Amino acid sequence: MIITFILNGMPRKAKIRSGDRLSTILTEENLPIKSLMPDCLSGHCGKCLIIMDKRLVYSCLVPAFRARDAEILTIEGLSDSDDVRDIQKGFHEAHCHPCSFCKNAKTLAIWDLLNRIPLPTEGQIEETLSVVSCACTDPVSLKKAVLIAAELKNQRKYHRADK
Ligand code: FES
Ligand code: FES
Q1: Which of 58, 77, 96 delimits the end of a domain?
Q2: Same structural domain, 86 and 71
Q3: Which ligand is closest to the CA of 23, given by its number?
């Protein structure tokens, strides 16, 4: 079966087999999505996170056929954005250094949070970050990074509104 969908703003096609997971389709050769690192395939590690129809989801838990006509966003589609630059700056300023296995997933989860909630509470930040399994990053610096990113994003927004 062939399905079509929008991936990072571009129309795409993929041939799927019964039982395929969306994470498999997205990481196959004709759709070069390198930011996903599906690992557990059971909704625990978070390394397959994507935004699908504006919702953050584990792509390993989504049957591939569900992507028909969907809009999918991965970090590749956001890498040049001010929002992602703010998050990277937040990591840097908070001395928080996610490893290469989880950095994309954490960035996408934070991006999604700040899009929905410009000034998240500590609880909302914790809940968001819990979607990516990681026992090695200091949670305090990670939270600080999110707050810095939120502040930078809000500064940009209000600066634009002032003009
Ligand atoms: S591969 Fe999807 S959550 Fe681990
Ligand atoms: S899994 Fe990447 S820093 Fe913990």
Answers
A1: 77
A2: no
A3: 1
Strands annotated E in the chain:
2-7, 10-15, 49-52, 55-58, 71-73
**Which of 59, 77, 95 is the last residue before a domain boundary?**
77
Distances (CA, A) of 110 to 35, 39, 135, 159: 15, 20, 17, 22
- Structural domain boundaries enclosing 149: 82-162
Q: How many angstroms separate the CA atoms of 131 and 127, rounded?
A: 7
Whole-model pTM above 0.70?
yes
| 12 phi and psi angles, rounded to 5 deg | -135, 160
Is 102's C-beta closer than 6 angstroms to any atom of ligand 2? Answer: yes
Tell me if residue 55 falls in helix, strand or coil.
strand
Low-confidence ranges of the chain (pLDDT < 50): none
Encode pLDDT of 119-155 as tens digits.
999 999 999 999 999 999 999 999 999 999 999 999 9
- Relative to the alpha carbon of 60, which ligand is closest? 1
